[in-house]
Amino acid sequence: MKLSAKLDPNNVYDYPEDALIAACGLIPAFYAEVMHDIIPHETSAEGIMGLLMDVYGFRTDVRMQGKIEENGTYVYPEDPDLEPYMQIKGMGHTVFIYPSGIVGVVAGDEQSIARMD
Question: CB 3.0–4.6 Å: which of 45, 81, 96, 116 could bond 105 by disulfide?
Fold first, then answer.
């Protein structure tokens, strides 16, 4: 599977790389564990989020109500916008890791956003 990862994709953070990596916690490792199950088994945003939740170990069906803009910014009307610490692009999907353990999966027109803290 072709994969690319980028720290601070919107160039908004003034932190060293190692601090951004640390801020992502174990979430990139969760993705590494499930990435081979995504294609051809799971291609929907919710299906990919489910795989991540299974590895996380505290699966919940609670999803955040905001939306992910085209550039990866997480927007929720009552809260300040969140910029991703990391963007991981796979075949047909993108995973964004935000502050506070928020994770967003975008696959086509679908989005699934949850908290993994």
Answer: 45
